[in-house]
Write a structure and sequence with these properties.
single chain; about 325 residues; Alpha-Beta Plaits; 2 domains
């Protein structure tokens, strides 16, 4: 590039050296928290009703009858300001609590809003959470080891049970709607029904039995099952009627079962390196592990997603 001598020359002054900033990086602002009166007004009725029912029904039967209530063995959604790590630290102090999953939501002007999915195993664990809540409401310092619960309660934005509307995503609703369009009520389709993963195999089998029983009661067939401990995955492949699928789209029927985490349509057959696909899905039920996978399932893992299970047609 040639210089134009008719244009003025600009003097460029080199930047001065500046001293390097000493000290730790600036800390991010703390998560937005709510006052005790605010939280008491918002969540107090839920905890009060929980206590009243458990006092007269220690087994939680009445709580389970209401799908909108907090109940033992029910997956709960905690929506928080701040980090899920604080929540993970909190649940370690209550025996039996299981953090099933977590996800980051789109941040707003206030803070990040993670969701944590917590399984409360029994009424004792549920009662201990309520006692921690009451202790925090009193304004007293939390006992040693339970300080993370203070942060959970003061940053809690929402608390609700995982319900029928959560078990099938908007995308899967659209796929399932298109798949049953034009079919008769007695026609059948295949669904992958993912269960809440339980490390305890006896509890896992109990979950599977409850779901299989309901599928059978509605005239469906359970074709196969898979449990893969390494990725905390447990699902059944079922053939159900269009009528049952319509109930699921309306958030009714099997979509109200507590052991179910996700329901997905299975209209596509996927190839697997585990072996050739079987021409028929009807076969012996088997609880599979990563070393023993039912050949009636085709399994494909995409990124960190759970395996998509499909049946050869």
């Amino acid at each position: 590039m040639t210089s134009d001598l008719n244009k003025p020359l600009l003097r460029v002054h080199p930047s001065r050296q500046a001293a390097r900033t000493v000290g730790s990086p600036r800390n991010p602002p703390p998560p937005v928290s709510f006052s005790i009166p605010e939280q008491a007004e918002k969540f107090g009725p839920k905890f009060t009703r929980l206590t009243e029912i458990l006092q007269r029904d220690s087994g939680g039967i009445e709580l389970h009858a209401d799908p909108s209530s907090i109940a033992p063995e029910r997956l709960l959604v905690f929506e928080l300001n701040g980090e899920v790590q604080n929540f993970a630290n909190a649940i370690r102090q209550v025996e039996g609590l299981q953090l099933v999953d977590e996800e980051e939501l789109v941040p707003d002007d206030l803070a990040d809003h993670p969701r944590a999915y917590l399984l409360i195993p029994d009424d004792q664990a549920l009662g201990q959470i309520h006692r921690l809540w009451e202790h925090w409401l009193s304004g007293s310092p939390m006992q040693t080891g339970f300080t993370p619960w203070r942060d959970v309660f003061k940053t809690l934005r929402d608390l609700r049970p995982w319900g029928p509307q959560d078990r099938i995503s908007k995308i899967d609703q659209g796929i399932l709607t298109r798949e049953i369009d034009g079919l008769e009520a007695h026609d059948t389709i295949k669904l992958e029904i993912e269960l809440i993963y339980r490390p305890d195999t006896s509890l896992s089998r109990n979950y599977q039995a409850r779901v299989e029983e309901e599928i059978t009661n509605q005239g469906g067939n359970v074709l196969s099952a898979a449990r893969i401990d390494e990725i905390a995955y447990h699902a059944v492949l079922a053939e159900v009627s269009v009528q049952t699928a319509t109930q699921i789209l309306n958030h009714e029927g099997i979509s109200s079962l507590d052991p179910i985490q996700h329901i997905r349509p299975q209209s596509t057959s996927l190839k697997s390196n585990l072996g050739d696909e079987s021409p028929s899905c009807c076969g012996q039920l088997k609880l599979a592990t990563s070393l023993e996978v039912n050949p009636n399932f085709s399994s494909a893992i995409i990124g960190d997603s759970p395996p998509l299970l499909a049946c050869g047609r």
